[in-house]
DNA sequence: AACTCAGCCAACCGCATTCAG
DNA sequence: ACTGAATGCGGTTGGCTGAGT
């Protein structure tokens, strides 16, 4: 016969997780590692279904998850990947390891889809003649070479847990806060670090400045050339930003920027590697996370080795890979990128 | 101050695939 | 080889929150 049932339907708790439950789950996974979800509710005493435990871990408690404040860079990646892969959120999330598929899916449904709609409706009068949808438009911007690049990238990388214990410490801090101030809402969103959010806001604002400082995309240019000013009002600033994200037309600038960027990416790789080593030595307990860290370091080295044996990466690969291996200095690199790629972003 | 409404997001549901027995 | 549970994944929903009236 098959396996015994994973969990009984009766006595299973549903709804939002409490900080106490989170702590129980996190400490169990720290001890035993993620996986074997069936045994989690039994061994922890949590009145949750194994499925619920796995979801809670992967979507919220897993270390290294970045929450909220999607950067324009991430937006661009999501838009391109969605155009390429469709609603394969797990596949898209594999290129953005700091984001969960649920997070990306939510962000797409609540923000990007609307932007797309506005963008499309603003462009429609021009697109109507050749029935080009935004999907086709984006796909055209994204060459078949890039599709191959994505496949290559998928083979090269393994999904890696980020090296920080940020989430767990936030969890503990949030729990301490909520314990000491019972009136305070136990809203799990409260775990997010205000400093982090602040930095993200600054970064976001910076990107917006760069974007809004006069980058006219191909579509807008086309409109101007055709004297289609009647739709100017329809294209909001966010649409312009959006078009900028989609536009890969100024390839000369891309190549120039890429050459410079390549250097920063290399130094960044070193950075992340030493970061990992540093964090390994600084922790004393041999936690599961440490094991994952060591695993990650090995993966990183393996990636670097395999990269040495492979042909030069395309611009897109660098873009994507950089985001994977260099999260600690993403802000710096993005700033540099935004300056260098100003005609595009 | 009270109410309504829309936006957002965590979590659930159900289907498809994988895999243990 | 077969069965059925475990797992993965995408779609959907319920409840919270803040803005508007």
TrEMBL record:
InterPro entries: Homeodomain-like_sf, Myb_dom, Myb_TF_plants, SANT/Myb
Domain called Myb-like: residue spans: 9-61, 62-112
Record field: compositional bias (Basic and acidic residues): 194-203
Pfam family, one: Myb_DNA-binding
Biased composition (Polar residues): 180-192
Domain (HTH myb-type) ranges: 9-65, 66-116
Location in the cell: Nucleus
Region annotated Disordered, chain positions: 180-213
Gene3D superfamilies: Homeodomain-like
Protein name (database record): Transcription factor MYB60
Species in which this protein is naturally found: Davidia involucrata
């Amino acid at each position: 016969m098959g396996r015994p049932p994973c969990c009984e339907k009766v006595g299973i708790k549903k709804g939002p997780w409490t900080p106490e439950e989170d702590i129980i789950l996190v400490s169990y996974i720290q001890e035993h590692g993620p996986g074997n979800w069936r045994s989690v509710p039994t061994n922890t005493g949590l009145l949750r279904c194994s499925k619920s435990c796995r979801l809670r871990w992967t979507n919220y408690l897993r270390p290294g998850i970045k929450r909220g404040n999607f950067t324009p860079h991430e937006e661009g990646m999501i838009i391109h990947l969605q155009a390429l892969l469709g609603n394969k959120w797990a596949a898209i999330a594999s290129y953005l390891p700091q984001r969960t598929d649920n997070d990306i899916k939510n962000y797409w449904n609540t923000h990007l889809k609307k932007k797309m709609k506005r963008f499309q409706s603003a462009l429609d009068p021009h697109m109507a003649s050749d029935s080009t949808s935004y999907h086709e438009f984006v796909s055209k911007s994204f060459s078949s070479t890039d599709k191959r690049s994505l496949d290559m990238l998928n083979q090269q990388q393994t999904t890696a847990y980020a090296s920080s214990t940020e989430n767990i410490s936030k969890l503990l801090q949030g729990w301490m806060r909520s314990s000491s101030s019972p009136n305070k809402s136990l809203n799990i969103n409260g775990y997010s670090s205000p400093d982090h959010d602040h930095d993200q806001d600054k970064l976001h604002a910076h990107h917006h400045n760069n974007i809004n400082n006069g980058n006219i995309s191909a579509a807008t240019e086309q409109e101007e050339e055709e004297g289609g000013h009647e739709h100017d009002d329809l294209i909001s600033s966010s649409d312009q930003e959006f078009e900028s994200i989609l536009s890969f037309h100024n390839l000369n600038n891309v190549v120039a920027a890429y050459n410079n960027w390549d250097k920063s990416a290399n130094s960044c790789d070193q950075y992340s590697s030493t970061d990992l080593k540093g964090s390994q030595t600084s922790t004393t307990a041999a936690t599961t996370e440490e094991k994952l860290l060591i695993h990650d370091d090995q993966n990183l080295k393996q990636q670097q080795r395999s990269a040495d044996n492979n042909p030069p990466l395309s611009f897109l690969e660098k873009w994507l890979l950089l985001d994977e291996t260099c999260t600690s200095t993403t802000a710096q690199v993005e700033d540099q990128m935004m300056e260098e790629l100003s005609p595009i972003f």
